[in-house]
Structure formats: C-alpha cells, structure tokens
C-alpha cells in the first residue's frame, strides 16, 4: 500500500496531507505579524523597552532557528505526523501562556509563551515540508504544492495584522493569542484521522552534540546583537556572547563532520543550488522580518496609528506576496529559479529604497504602492527558493534539506529584529539631542527628554510633560525616530542587494531527482 496516496482502509490521504501541511505552516507563522503590529500596544501596557520588544519577537524566532534541524531529525526517525502534532500542541501551550502575560503584567511571561510557540513552529516547518515531499515524490509536481505551502505562510502574515487590529479595537491585546489555540487543537485532531505518517530511510539518530552547539551558537549571537545594540558592543557580556557563538559554530561544524548521523549533513552544501538558497533564505529573511519589526514601530510610534489601521497597511505587502507566490511557482519550470529569485530581490530592494522617503505624514496611498511592489518581489522569491532547496538534493535527503533551509531562514529572521533594534536605538539616541535642539528646546528640556529615553525607552517620551513645549518635543522625537527608520530601511535594502548578488552568482539549476521506479526506500507508517 503506497502511503503517498492511501491510508486508513484505502482512503485517499494525499490531498488531506497537503491541506494539513498548509494549515500547519499557517499556524506556525501566525504569531509573526499578529505580535509585530501589536508591539506599540504591548510596549505601553508592559512598560517595555525597545530591547524588550526585540525579545518578544526573538523569543519566538530563536527556538525556531535553534531547534528546527533537530525537529527534522525527530520526524525522520519517529514519524513526521507525530512531530506535526507535537508542534501544534506546543503552539497551543505557548499561546495559552502568552494569553496570561497581560494579567501578570510581565513581559517575561510573554517571552515564555512566545518561546513555547517557537518550539512548536520549529517542529511544524520541517514536518509540513517533509509530509509534502513524501506525498508528492515527483520534484516538478511537488513545486506546485510547495507554492501552496508558501502561500499559506504568507497568508498567516497577511491575516495576523487584521486579527490583531480587530481585537485591539475592542479588547485587551492578550486576546491576540487566542486564535492559535483552537486552530492548533482542531488541526491535531484532523491530522490524527486523515494524515498518513512517514519516516526517512536508513537509521538516522538524534544528534545531541550538533543540537547543543547549534542552539548555543545561534542564541549567543542574537543575544549579543540585541544587548550590544541596547547598551554597547564593548560590554564584557556582549563580547563573551560573541566569542561563545563563534566557538560553538566551529564546534558544530566539527561535530557534524565527525558524526555518523549528522543533524545537518554538510555534504548538502556540495549542491550549489542548496548552498545558494540557504544563504539567500538567511539574508533575505534578515531583511524582511527586520523590516516588519521596524514598520510596525513606524506605524505606531511615528504615525500613531491604531493596530487595525496598521494592519491595513501590512496587507498591502502580504496580500500581493501571497497572491504572487503560486503564480511564480507555476512558471518556475519555464523561467529559471535564478532569474525569478534575483529579479524578486532586486524588486524588493527598489521598494525598500523608495520607502526611505516616508515621513510622519506619508499617506496610505503613497505607502501602498511601495508595499505592493515589495510583496510582489518577495512573492517571486519564496516559492522558487523553497522548491529549489528541496529539489536540489536526492529524495531521501529532502527532509533534511527542508529543515536546513528553514533553519537558515529562521537564523536570518532572528537576527533581523535584533539588528534593526540595535540600529534604530543607536541612531535615534544619537540624533535625538540635535533634533530637539532644531525644534527649539533648551538644554534643560533636552536633558530631561534624553534622560527619560535612556531610563525608560522611546515610549517614555510620551510621558514627559513640557507644557507649551510638548508639541515641539514630540516633533523633535518624531524626526529623530524617522532618522532611525530611514537608516534601517537603507540597511534592509543593502541586505536585499547582497541576497540578489548571492542568487545571481551562486544559484544554478538543480538536477531534478526523478522518483525511483523501484519500491520506495522510504517506508510508510500507516495509520491504524
């Protein structure tokens, strides 16, 4: 009985597997923009600093980056459906913990909930792609379903701001974490009934030395970037974290080269297509998630928009990306992935550069066309990038390739908010005294405002009362904040250019791995 098409008494499970995989990645990515557009509200409610807000995002992304490779191995060894269901359970638990953060008045509780949800997302990403790869062994046909997978990912990014906006217009921000709970539980139940389990061929084992060294390297690097940006990169603990990250990375490489069952087989990098897409995934997601972090702060801090209004603007990016993804996925057999990815990244670069001219009064229409171009650009990147990474290696390594590509993507996603937060904090802090002076404030007033920012973060500005000078103070702060926003957008554009160069220089058309005519090496685990 072929598990790619049949399970449970002859019932066709292929369509159900693909649908469940798409729902799973939707649940995994829902917290990204749901939380991002709520950051200004969360900051005011929990009296959080900009560095604290970075950890709200990175508490979710870090476990994804650190554990995604191990989750891929666990799925290969014990069954991908089991890992899929475990991931959904962690997403539900994390959402339930985060739901209590407002009542507890603790940003640390929110970090904890985000971390549990991140563990769940780490399990879901390789499991969902592994299930699709098993259900659709033909690389050409599989590309179509990978496009559906990426569209579901973008759908989560599109829906998240609207969910947050509707909730925050009528209730506390804590309720933005409610939706993942029933979504996760219902999907778990459906997967148990309709999705056939599968495992990888051979005798893969859990690679704990590789897992530990990878997790330490990633966590230490992100910690150093966030804390260095908030304080100073010359701080002793920041330097120790950077050194620890470097040593752990070297240890990870040595461990994987010597391991009989590596978590990430470094032979995958012999494929130029896999190496190129891994680098492009990391670099482009650094720019993308960093941009979303900065955009949410711009809409909340500079334009003083409500979450729903901010959500409408986010849709101008996410909806075109979601719509364009399947279209580009369909044509990637006629146009090379190299051309699609490079062109998409250059289009995104142009959009980000155009956004460097935004100010406090930029209209919805004036911003929308720039965000639409950005969405189309990323729509041309996502599906070809993911499909190329999977199709560039033999079928039996597709699960590891999916996990590896996602791991690089999440490392970039973790570094994005950390880097942008550091850049934003440094630039605004440096520019604020001059901007306040330009606004006409005297030395005493300037010292009072900068002191409030140093002790309480950017949100503390709105609590400073200078009487008749308050409007001028807020104008000066807005100008300083825009200086930081423009710097971050310029860096994001430079990051996209770098990703485009990597794509143009390194990406080559992969050799398609034809499905084997003999009995499948990968044995199904049929549902009882």
TrEMBL record:
InterPro entries: MFS, MFS_dom, MFS_trans_sf. Coiled coil: none annotated. The keyword Membrane applies. Keywords: Antibiotic resistance, Membrane, Transmembrane, Transmembrane helix, Transport. This is MFS transporter. It comes from Streptomyces crystallinus. Pfam families: MFS_1 (PF07690). It is found in: Cell membrane. PANTHER family: MAJOR FACILITATOR SUPERFAMILY MULTIDRUG TRANSPORTER MFSC. CDD domains: MFS_MMR_MDR_like (cd17321). The chain crosses the membrane at residues 18-39, 59-79, 86-105, 111-133, 145-167, 173-196, 238-257, 278-298, 310-328, 335-355, 367-390, 484-507. Its main location: membrane. It is a multi-pass membrane protein. Residues 17-511 form the Major facilitator superfamily (MFS) profile domain.
């Amino acid at each position: 009985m072929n598990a790619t098409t049949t399970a449970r008494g002859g019932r066709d499970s292929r369509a159900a597997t693909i649908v469940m995989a798409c729902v799973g990645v939707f649940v995994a990515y829902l917290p990204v923009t749901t939380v991002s557009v709520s950051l200004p509200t969360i900051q005011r409610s929990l009296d959080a600093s900009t560095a604290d807000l970075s950890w709200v995002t990175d508490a979710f992304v870090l476990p994804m980056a650190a554990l995604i490779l191990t989750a891929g191995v666990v799925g290969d060894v014990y069954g991908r459906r089991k890992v899929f269901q475990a991931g959904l359970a962690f997403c539900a638990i994390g959402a339930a913990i985060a739901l209590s953060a407002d009542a507890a008045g603790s940003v640390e509780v929110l970090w904890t909930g985000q971390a549990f949800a991140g563990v769940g997302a780490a399990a879901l990403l390789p499991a969902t792609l592994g299930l699709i790869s098993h259900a659709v062994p033909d690389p050409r046909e599989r590309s179509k379903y990978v496009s559906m997978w990426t569209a579901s990912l973008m759908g989560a990014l599109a829906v998240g701001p609207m969910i947050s906006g509707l909730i925050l217009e009528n209730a506390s921000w804590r309720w933005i974490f409610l939706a993942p709970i029933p979504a996760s539980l219902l999907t778990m139940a459906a997967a148990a009934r309709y999705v056939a389990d599968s495992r990888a061929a051979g005798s893969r084992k859990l690679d704990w030395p590789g897992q530990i060294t990878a997790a330490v390297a990633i966590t230490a690097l992100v910690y150093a970037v966030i804390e260095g940006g908030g304080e100073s990169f010359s701080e002793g603990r920041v330097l120790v974290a950077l050194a620890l990250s470097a040593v752990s990375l070297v240890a990870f490489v040595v461990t994987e080269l010597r391991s009989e069952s590596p978590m990430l087989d470094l032979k995958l990098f012999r494929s130029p297509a896999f190496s190129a897409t891994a680098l492009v995934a990391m670099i482009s997601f650094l720019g993308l998630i960093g941009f979303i972090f900065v955009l949410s702060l711009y809409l909340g801090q500079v334009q003083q928009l409500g979450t729903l209004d901010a959500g409408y603007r986010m849709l101008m990016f996410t909806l075109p990306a979601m719509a364009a993804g399947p279209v580009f996925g369909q044509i990637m057999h006629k146009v090379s992935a190299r051309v699609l990815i490079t062109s998409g990244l250059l289009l995104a670069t142009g959009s980000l550069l155009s956004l460097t001219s935004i100010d406090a009064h930029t209209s919805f229409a004036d911003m929308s066309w720039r965000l639409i171009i950005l969405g189309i650009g990323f729509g041309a990147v996502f599906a070809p990038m993911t499909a190329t990474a999977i199709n560039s290696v033999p079928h039996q390594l597709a699960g590891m390739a999916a996990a590896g590509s996602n791991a690089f993507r999440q490392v970039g996603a973790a570094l994005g908010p950390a880097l942008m937060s550091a850049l934003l904090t440094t630039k605004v802090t440096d520019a604020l005294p001059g901007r306040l002076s330009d606004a006409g404030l005297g030395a005493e007033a300037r010292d009072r405002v900068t002191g409030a920012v140093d002790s309480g973060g950017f949100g503390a500005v709105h609590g400073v009362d200078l009487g008749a000078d308050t409007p001028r103070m807020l104008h000066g702060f807005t100008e300083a904040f825009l200086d930081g926003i423009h710097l971050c957008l310029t860096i994001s554009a430079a990051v996209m250019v770098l990703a485009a160069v990597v794509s143009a220089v390194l990406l080559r058309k992969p050799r398609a791995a034809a499905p084997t005519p003999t009995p499948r090496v990968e044995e199904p685990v049929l549902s009882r």
